[in-house]
Amino acid sequence: MEWLRAFSIKAAYLSGVSRLVANPIDSLTTLLFHRFLPGEVSRDHSRDRLKRQCDWLRQKYTPLTLTQVIEALRRGHFPKRSLLLTSDDASADLLEVIDIFDMFKLPIAVFVCAGWSTRASRPEDDTLLARTVTALEWHCGPEKRLRLNDNLEINLQRSSRNETIDAILANYDEWRPYLDYVVRAVDANAMKPRERPCCTWEELAGLQSRGVQIGCHSVSHIKLASASDMRMRFEVHESNRILTTKFGACEAFAYPYGTLDSYNTSTSMLLKEAGFSVAFLTRSDFATSYEDVYHLPRITIPDRPLSFLEFCARVGGGGVAFSRLKRLIA
Fold this sequence. Notes:
Distance between the termini: 38 Å
CATH class of the largest domain: Alpha Beta
Structural class: alpha/beta
Strand content: 5-15%
Radius of gyration: 21 Å
Number of strands: 10
Helix content: 40-55%
Order of helices and strands: HEHEHEHEHHEEHHHHEHEHEEHH
Mean pLDDT: 90
Number of helices: 14
CATH architecture of the largest domain: Alpha-Beta Barrel
Largest sheet: 6 strands, parallel
Shape: globular
Low-confidence stretches: 4-9, 11-21
CATH superfamily of the largest domain: Glycoside hydrolase/deacetylase
Oligomer: single chain
């Protein structure tokens, strides 16, 4: 029974902390999901757990769409106990639970990593550069040299990955005829078959038709702050171009990883330049109407089965005090 005692202590702590940092009544609680069907339990059990969570959220909060959140920030006022549900990466298991969000009339916004969904979909000419950058960024295989012509070659190794991508971005017209071959060669050199963990463009279009709003999550899911200026610009502007072309205006961005080292003083200016109105982090806190719109907090829901008590405590602010302490000492 030791595990039960430890769990009870943890749950009581989370519940107590959540009361100490309870969200102001006119603030926004934004939740971040990645996976909805963790492999540790059955699909039916995961769906039942999500139904109970959604039922509780519907009773306790005022659900908002992403568009309504942007409008509320512009007005400088949130409705009482506002709630925004978000999901990063467009995990394919969202397709298996979207009916639950529909059932409880809970809108959800999905932040799409454009390169990942491009790789999961049929190849298209206008996303070739995004496919190439993403393939090189996430290549996992032995070192290999690709000779393309007398002047161009690629060395598939982690240590030269960033330099290779920057060279392609800087001289796209020269590299363009070889990029299809590069993507195929990268896939062939992988140590294991490429998985399809995220939604295709067609599946995302189906979700959008059901009211799911689409936001940007970069092209290849890198920490923007550690990228070159050219790569950072590509990740922001190209993701916006692709998603706007496919789904219409895209005003919201979610930083990959969303941690303190994932953004810097340049990123908010670049996001504004690209046409984004808001951007989200993974910092646990509640957003007020006077929040910096390019650094909005979100409460992360872990990718594991949660007890109902722990879920409620997290949503209520169980991790906020620690997050605030980290920011003070950073």
